[in-house]
């Protein structure tokens, strides 16, 4: 067992080697860096534009286009992969200095790879694939050959670099992707603050004093800084959607089994008999980029690479022209919506109704969302060996504060058993049947619901993600779409009397934080959910 | 707790009420019935033809056509559902008297329903669906509204009749199916002899002294008697394919999640966290009938009815014209192939090679099939409550003999634990990866292997089904195709020296028993497996 002194030294050395990968000419001046801290209310979104490190053209490349457009421009030779990659490397370096979003920096490898992509196109006249030359950022838990995967455990710092790419990474690589950074996540990945003892905490670029969310929080902060145009995360309880909400970007959690999950580094023990299956999904800026990711991966027939992937092709679904029908979940009484989220949902509902869509409230027809979340959480605690604890204890590092706040008091002394697991599965199936039958009976295209009771909140106060975990328990695809922002002036009319907001509602603290809605689709109908997202985003006019 | 006297009386009353549902004019004479016993070597396949109960036309309807043809004839009004149903009711009544294959008889309801189908067609000019007017037989574990589901537990005899159809039954009903019998299965469904204390033992119509297999054994015996043209079974370790092999019919086990499984009566506890998922599939006489079943069910979008069904459409796959590539598993050393099965596999391989197909032996590249089967079996023993034992003990009935022979000595004292379940899942995943990678690397279209080391064997000697359980563990679709028959003359050249046959090879006892090959397809490629079955059956000329 390492001593505490050991782990601090180990973690510091890892951070130093990360910092050393940012070239001197991309370093921000002390005047900016000195302002960066987790108590600051600073918004750092403008720093890439004002710091002078990126050229005008690089600013344009990183800000003006989505991934689909950039690939198109690279293939048409209106730009090059090298130029695009250089721009995103620079911008990621800036994002890292102001939000602490990265865990691994691979700028040199990426620029070399980008040149290879450009040469390939020049030589062959055709692109490598649908993400030809595109820089794609990855959550740290993905293996990239030759790069470490510590996933924020100090005890993993001594691990050698990955010998193999994760299955998804290999697939994207063959389709032309350029990997240039991996991004930060919470200790154990089971918290909503991307904070760990190796890399420290990722800050929210909209307001540094707010959480960036988790577990794919580094990714979302990077994307919000436009230090990435397309990022890849994972989601078992909201890990794609929580940071997407907190930062103000798009997050898409597919049905399980559609995107190859094999070959990643898990935070816990392999072989869990949990009925909740972790999934990989994209975070980004445009809905067509969500489809670009899904279609690119699934069109490669990834089931030939990954034995856990369903051999089900991506279907090209036409735009939907009939009036959509949405089930509406307003709130769980235990976690009433903060005024900003209340206004967001009500505004969205009003806009969708005005557009001729049907909204069918279903709060009274579903079991308690809170109780459902408690059941779901049990599935994450099944390992009698408590492997994440072993990983923590192996270095002597302490627990980060958010782990304590992200837990259910009901489960403080809960011990898993095989016998109860049978009952848990029966309970899960009953809940699934309620939602399934509701969707069929009411002919719902999707369910509209909050992704969280609030916006991004101050660090370590997020608590349990009962609104995002629901689609994981059901294995329904789900997405968050940014919509509106917290505004104490507009929100004050939405304060409910006689309710207890958890966490505390502090209008000043969250002022300006992005809000979002969550859309939950039908299982295996990921394709349709993307079409629905397009219609909703257009109706709400919620994307740039 | 009931006394032993109670359970005998209860079971006898159930059998009597079943027997009473066979009209007097469909009863076989004592001269035939007196010959029926489980020690007899009698083949009873000709009795429907010779007993005089069916008209010539009824014999033709039951013998000459497959389900696809019968539906076509009904829709074209070349016959009626009532006429077809009457013929199969009569023939099922005969089958029941010589093989004891039925558990529930619904002749009156079926003939009434058949008339409704005929009226519907006459009135509407269109059929109800792709199985319009077709009699379909069901394994006892399916619920048919108004009929009991005892699944061979004495303690279930006091249960009321089913209040609802199983999801699959409801779907088939809406597509025009006529249900007229349910069929026998083993106590607990976890044995290869369809024997229980409620209904007794189903005999093999090819030779009464041989097992009819299990757990869908009543179904297969009924089909072999042509007392059914299309039957529905379930399979978790071979329960469709074992009886299909033993009786000489086709059996098809799809990938899990494709056919709705909800609303059946389970032999054990619901909510199992097992990685082996039970599936429903067809048994029958033609490969196009296997597709008729699969396509009919999946075209209804059964995921709207059943929350456990994958929303994945049935794909219409064109016939394959390129030369197929088969992986070949010859045998596990612990269960060497009996001479008849050895000859069957070798003959099939030779014929397929002659037809220009590639055969790639893979025995040396896979983990022990026996060890794999032991792992698989553990997944069936996960319930700490041992619910099947509770169901048995509730009536005081004893265990049937085959339960003892269908067990692994390694697991005699094995107790499940949540901790080991994690390791079991890791082991399963490793095995899955070996097969997955082999199939991809060697570009295999399917794996050809025995379904069992022998043909049907004498009652209670079948033992553990290591060759059929493999595709269940992998969740690969699999099918058995009848091919050749045991022949002591032809088989004697295939006797291997120095091996121990388990069970004992008794050439005389199995003389004339049907043989079969097993084809294992790729997961979710059920459609392609059917195309492959067609090519193999045509090459082997193995179907009538």
Automatic annotation (TrEMBL), chains A, B:
It comes from the Eukaryota. InterPro entries: Amidase_dom, AS_sf. It holds the Pfam family Amidase. The keyword Hydrolase applies. SUPFAM superfamilies: Amidase signature (AS) enzymes. GO terms for molecular function: hydrolase activity. Keywords: Hydrolase. The keyword Mitochondrion does not apply. Coiled coil: none annotated. Substrate binds at residues 189, 215, 236-239. The active site is at 139 (charge relay system), 215 (charge relay system), 239 (acyl-ester intermediate). Residues 83-529 form the Amidase domain. Belongs to the amidase family. This is Amidase. It comes from Glonium stellatum.
């Amino acid at each position: 067992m390492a001593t505490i002194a050991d782990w601090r030294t180990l973690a510091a050395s890892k951070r130093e080697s990360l910092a050393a990968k940012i070239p001197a000419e991309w370093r921000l001046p002390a005047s900016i860096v000195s302002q960066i801290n987790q108590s600051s209310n600073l918004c750092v979104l403008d720093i890439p534009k004002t710091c002078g490190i990126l050229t005008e053209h690089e600013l344009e490349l990183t800000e003006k286009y989505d991934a689909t457009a950039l690939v198109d421009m690279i293939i048409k030779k209106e730009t090059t992969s090298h130029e695009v990659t250089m721009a995103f490397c620079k911008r990621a370096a800036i994002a890292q200095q102001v939000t602490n979003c990265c865990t691994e920096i691979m700028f040199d490898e990426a620029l070399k790879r980008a040149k290879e992509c450009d040469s390939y196109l020049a030589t062959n006249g055709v692109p490598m694939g649908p993400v030809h030359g595109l820089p794609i950022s990855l959550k740290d838990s993905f293996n990239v050959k030759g790069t470490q995967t510590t996933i924020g455990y100090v005890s993993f710092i001594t691990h050698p670099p990955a010998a193999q790419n994760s299955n998804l990474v290999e697939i994207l690589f063959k389709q032309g992707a350029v990997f240039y950074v991996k991004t930060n996540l919470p200790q154990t990945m089971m918290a909503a603050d991307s904070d760990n003892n190796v890399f420290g905490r990722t800050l929210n670029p909209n307001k540094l004093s707010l959480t960036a969310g988790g577990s794919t929080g580094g990714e979302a902060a990077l994307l919000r800084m436009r230090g990435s145009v397309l990022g890849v995360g994972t989601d078992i309880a909201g890990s794609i959607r929580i940071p997407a909400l907190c930062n103000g970007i798009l997050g898409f959690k597919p049905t399980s089994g559609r995107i190859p999950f094999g070959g990643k580094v898990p935070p816990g023990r392999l072989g869990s008999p949990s009925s909740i299956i972790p999934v990989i999904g994209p975070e980004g800026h445009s809905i067509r980029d969500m489809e670009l990711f899904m279609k690119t991966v699934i069109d490669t027939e990834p089931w030939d690479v990954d034995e856990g992937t369903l051999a089900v092709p991506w279907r090209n679904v036409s735009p939907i022209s009939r009036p959509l029908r949405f089930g509406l979940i307003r709130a769980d009484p235990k976690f009433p919506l903060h005024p900003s989220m209340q206004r967001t949902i009500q505004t969205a509902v009003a806009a969708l109704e005005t557009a001729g869509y049907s909204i069918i409230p279903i709060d009274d027809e579903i079991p308690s969302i809170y109780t459902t979340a408690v059941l779901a959480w049990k599935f994450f605690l099944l390992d009698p060996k408590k492997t994440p604890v072993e990983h923590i204890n192996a270095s002597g590092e302490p627990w980060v504060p958010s782990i304590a706040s992200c837990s259910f008091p009901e489960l403080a002394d809960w011990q898993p058993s095989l016998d109860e697991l049978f009952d848990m599965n029966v309970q899960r199936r009953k809940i699934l049947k309620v939602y399934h039958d509701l969707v069929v009976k009411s002919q719902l295209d999707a369910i509209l619901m909050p992704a969280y009771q609030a916006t991004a909140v101050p660090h370590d106060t997020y608590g349990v993600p009962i609104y995002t975990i629901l689609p994981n328990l059901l294995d329904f695809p789900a997405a968050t779409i940014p919509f509106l922002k917290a505004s104490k002036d507009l929100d004050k009319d939405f304060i409910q009397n006689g309710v207890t907001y958890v966490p505390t509602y502090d209008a000043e603290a969250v002022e300006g934080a992005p809000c979002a809605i969550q859309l939950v689709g039908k299982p295996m109908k990921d394709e349709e959910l993307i079409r629905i997202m397009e219609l909703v985003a257009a109706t709400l006019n919620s994307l740039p």
